[in-house]
Amino acid sequence: MDLDWILNHLGEERERYFGAVAPPLLQSSNFAFPTVADMRAQAGDEFGHHFYTRGNNPTVEILRRKLAALEGAEDCLVFGSGAAAIAAAVIASVSAGDHVVCVQKPYSWTRRLLADLLPRFAVTTTFVDAADAGSVEAALTPGTRLLVLESPNTLTFELQDLAALAAVARPRGVRTLCDNSYASPLNQSPLAFGIDLVAHSATKYIGGHGDVVAGALCGPQALLREVFRGPYMTLGAIPSPHDAWLLLRGLRTLPLRMRRCAATALQVAAFLEAHPKVERVWYPHLPSHPQHALALRQMRGGSGLLSLAIRCEDVSGVERFCDALRRFLMSVSWGGYESLACPIAAFLPAGTSAAAKAGQVPANLVRLSIGLEEPDVLIADLAQALDRV
Ligand SMILES: *Cc1c(COP(=O)(O)O)cnc(C)c1O
What we know:
Shape: globular
CATH architecture of the largest domain: 3-Layer(aba) Sandwich
Mean pLDDT: 97
Structural class: alpha/beta
Bound molecules: pyridoxal-5'-phosphate
Strand content: 15-25%
CATH topology of the largest domain: Aspartate Aminotransferase, domain 2
Low-confidence stretches: none
Helix content: 25-40%
Distance between the termini: 46 Å
Radius of gyration: 22 Å
Strand order of the largest sheet: 1-7-6-5-4-2-3
CATH class of the largest domain: Alpha Beta
Number of strands: 14
Number of domains: 2
């Protein structure tokens, strides 16, 4: 992958825009034509032309080309959120009566889509522990159309062997979708393992600055045209050109940000793992992670996202830890320049036992998103907060 070319040159066409170094922000809802013949020529193929911004827009198109190249995909569609990208991929792939197989603990709104919304339209889902290709294979039925993966998984970062699962699904005509938000396009290429579609929450590493909510879907053009004609155009969950412009700006530093936050996260994870107030750490690039070998084989690098379980009786210990943090902001989301802490305890009643579970996640789990700060500053902050547990 010629990363510098993709990030600095691909799709920019600066000669069309006065040689401007930064890409044009074409904040226009529609595009005008001099003749009926010109209008007719564009109307037939909104996927690749500029007609109306719900379909395509020149600023968004620059982003589409760069994200497609980063994923090694033929094309990309950009959405108004990661949830919209995932929902569009799923909706384009199923009809009433069809069946989906999904990883056990997907992102919460992926679960809502599959467990709550789609059953109203007679689409059912089986959730399986996809660490084992055999249990995925066993869950497939003659009606299964789609396998939904997320590697590493949300909050506890279970991995799936993407090549093995693609090899299970493809011969049976089951389409595969992988949420690649954790790794970013830089650290994992699901399409290269035989996965059909790759989704991102661009809100996270692609944007990287805590200022945009957006999503992306990458894959073969034929599949994306199917998504485009269906949910993309009909549901209209598109990004604004301004959001696309901010994402292009965020992309310029993606390699630097990923390298920095992964290196710091590994230091933080090692510090936490050795701390007596920490019961457990989840980070795929720690040698103690049960799927460390798979992480090294399948991913080109780590990310800044890890979780720890606080050693305490009930969630008041988690509260004392989180309330004492001075450098980490307490917030949802992740993948930005700023370090964040997200305690599961915030979604549970005060006093819940540390041994309880929220869904399948321990009540004493805190997810950390490591940003671009100095590692020593973050570790010192965690150390003083752990003293309060
Ligand atoms: C945040 C997130 C999403 C949803 O993305 P939005 O941009 O918030 O809609 C999907 N998958 C994962 C793994 C996420 O963390």
